[in-house]
Structures are given as C-alpha cells and as structure tokens.
C-alpha cells in the first residue's frame, strides 16, 4: 500500500519535479456522445481539457484503461485512464514542458495512488485533497503586479511585487493608472468582445489586459512567456469561477476577494 506522503517531496525536489498542470476528469458515460465532469484542475484551463478529451475520447472509451502521450505546441501531455468501481472512466491529464520532458516516475506514483483511492471513495473530497496536497505546479515570478477591476476602474483585487521604485508604492496609483489605460483603449477593446490579450507598453515593462464578463484583468510583466500567458488565462477563469456569486451582488465590499490569495499563491511568487 502506498502512503499518502509517498508522492510528497522535499522542498528541494519540488521545483525540479513540478508539473505545468494537472486535470482529473470523469467521463459521464461510455459512448461517443458522453460529456465529462472535471473533478480537479490545477495549472490547466477548461478549454484545453475539453479539446484533449474530444480528441482522445473515442480511443479512451474503446480501451477503457491505458495511457496516451500527446505533444501540443510547447507542452507534453500524458493521459492515464482507467475504469473505477462504478464503471465510470477516470482520466488523469499531466502537463509538462516538451523540452524538459515528463517526470514519469512522479506520474506513475500519483496515478497508482489515484487508482487506489477510486476503489474505495465515497465522495470526491478525499481525492481532491490528495490532488491539492500532492500535485506541485511551477510558479512564476514574472508577474510584477496584478489588478482586477470593474468597468468603472474600482479594484476587486490587487497583488504587487515587493515594493520597488515609485510605481509599486501605491495600489491606488496602479489601479488608477490601469483604469486610465483601459479608458484610453476601451474603443479598441469594445470592438472585440472576446477575452483576447491586449498589450500596452509602459517604460521597461508591459501591461497586458484581458477583459471577460465585464471584469478587467491587468498584468504588469517584464517578458511574456508561454507559461505566463497560460497562467494569465487560468487566473481569469479561476477568479470568475470562484467569485461568480460575489460579482453578481457586489456592493463595494472587496473583503470576499481576499481569499483569491490562496489561488494566486499556487501560480505566482510576489
């Protein structure tokens, strides 16, 4: 029997063995028309999971247990799947950098433990806790400031790098500046209702804006990397999913949004 901490590693090993992302999926049925349920997700977005499942669903349903390796742009995906005690197919998706290669020892240990958990689970709570405690993903130091605003420029949430220089002295200044930048570019943004990335050069750094569901996400970065771009869109989705109800009844109280620290700390080091 594998103990829960068999997959846990020392702090020294975490960076070298950290994944880019992980998703745990349950297929709702075993036909080509089956939908899927996301049990757990970390470092991946829903659209990527949806594309991967649609691409591989026919083979997964036919074989019911096995593994697949899928290269996608800069990433490498390892899919491990099996049928649980309720005859549902469970798919685990591990994502890592193509250049670095997949840590297959880590993948094997996590997958083997997951299979054991699915043989005895009554709810997904223990499985989600296991994934949260044992799936380490890479963190980025490249985001210097993150401010999330409503269309009027009022901040819901902000995080800044440790104070450096005048621009980092005041969250009010950052929020006001970004609000002004948004006002300046709202005509351009208004022509494109999608959540595409907007870029605004500022000194030696760049502001990137993503507008989705009337919420403005602004990132101050020095250099945009594929990992950072991926995390930007994940942060957008995580915020909107986490605070769907809070945004509907927002009355100026920003205290509920403070718990977003927990999610940001998974992806970013400020």
What is the distance, rounded to the nearest whole angstrom, between the alpha carbons of the first and last residues? 39 Å
Helix content: 25-40%
Q: How many discrete domains?
A: 2
Overall pLDDT confidence: 81
Element order, helices and strands? HEEHEEEHHEEHEEEHHH
Notes on the protein architecture:
This protein is of the alpha+beta class and 270 residues long. The chain has two domains: 4-134, Beta-Lactamase; 143-267, Beta-Lactamase. Helices cover 38% and strands 27% of the residues. It has eight helices and ten strands. It has a five-stranded antiparallel β-sheet. Strand 8 and strand 9 form a beta hairpin. Helix 3 packs antiparallel against helix 4 and helix 6 packs antiparallel against helix 8 (260-267).
Entry summary:
The chain has about 270 residues and is α+β, with helices and mostly antiparallel strands.
